[in-house]
Amino acid sequence: MQKKNYVQEILDIIHSGLPQAELAEKLSDYHENDLADALADLTAEERRKLYAILGVEQVAEIFSYLDDAEPYLKELPPEEAAQVVSHMDSDDAVDALDDLEEEDKEKIVHQMDKVDKDAADDVKLLLSYDEDEIGSRMSANFISLDSEMTVGQATRALMDQAKENDNIQMLFVTAENGFFCGTVELRALLIAEKNAAIAPLIQHRFPYVYCSERTEDCIERLKSYSESAIPVLDASNCILGVITLRDLVEAVDDEMSDDYAKLGGLSAEEDLHEPLRASLKKRMPWLLVLLVLGMVVSGVVGAFEKVVSRLTIIMAFQSLILDMAGNVGTQSLAVTIRVLMDKEITARKKLGLVCKEMRVGLFSGLILGSLSVLFVGAYIMLGKGYPAQYAFAVSVCIGAALLLAMFISSAVGTLIPMFFKRIGVDPAVASGPLITTVNDLVAVVTYYGLSWLLLLQVLHLGS
Length: 463
Known about the structure:
The model has no long low-confidence stretch (mean pLDDT 85). The protein has helices at residues 6-14, 20-27, 32-39, 44-54, 56-63, 70-73, 78-86, 90-98, 102-115, 117-127, 151-161, 186-191, 215-225, 245-263, 276-303, 305-310, 318-340, 347-383, 388-422, 427-458; strands at residues 143-146, 170-174, 180-185, 209-210, 229-233, 239-244. It is built from 20 helices and six strands.
């Protein structure tokens, strides 16, 4: 079954010339995410007309799904932009505002004070947190009940608050001054006796996070609970907001993107519109370090010039050793960084990880090295016409070098990030590019060293 192109359907409807009321009705059938994707294919004038037809509330929902809201918010006067942002969930509003220049952000927040003071206060609260703190991601979209309420009172409070907050699966219960008491499930409230107190329904040991906690420290904990919303508390254990499943998915996506950038030696993600100078500033420090290390690798190859000149065939298989050593080192790096996310990992577990990765490298090298002996020997003998004794002597050397290089590289891929973690340097930033070059050095020394020792000194093949 062919997947429908909803974006194209939306564009066809917008360009159809239908009356405004009919156009709004037809577009209401589509998800806001698809409507957000369609905005990029409209002109600024078409978008402004569309905003007027859809109304502020639906436009706010659409803007919540934009990856980069800056160009669209800048098309609107600050007063209209403030109305749109005021109707967004506070965390989505902050995401949209973060895309703007500081001056434009301040203008919109100032206008929000006039449009909706409560929404403006929520946004200011989230903006007061650093971007790596969980408080910067929380939403004010939650239902709050008083611990002294009856079921009937709580149901009425739920109905009143549901007009503004649609996150109603989990109801959060507070005492005086907003002190967090626990939660009540919607189903439990609906089936309880009307005149009964809600106190017996409260789950007091519900998970929570503090607003000042680092997001990366919270992700694994939040994922393990699989709740639709987790409360965010201040230092006095008063509820400030919630982290929803959508917030969590976005946080995981951001962390993965950030880790991917770090593995490339970047201090942060780059985007399509980033200035040249900013990109160079992120990339050059590690590239300069790697240039020096690359020159060391080249110098090592130069030291084995006599080996290469007397055994030219081995040059054809240098990339095989370098690639496989790099691959196994990168795999060990990925596993190690994943394990190091556990803040409570013991020294014994770290030692166990090193031993495990080295065993994996050893046996992987043994299997692949054995296969290399057979296939490379056959290739040199049959494809290149060398005698069988010569061909398999070279292939045995290649297999041994592959085994040793993969064994050492798995240790390097595990120990280097552990070392950086120990000295307080982000292992993802420091390890990715460094391990690639170190593994090249390991592979070159191993390969040419064994070629010199086994083929020239022991077997005298190049004589």
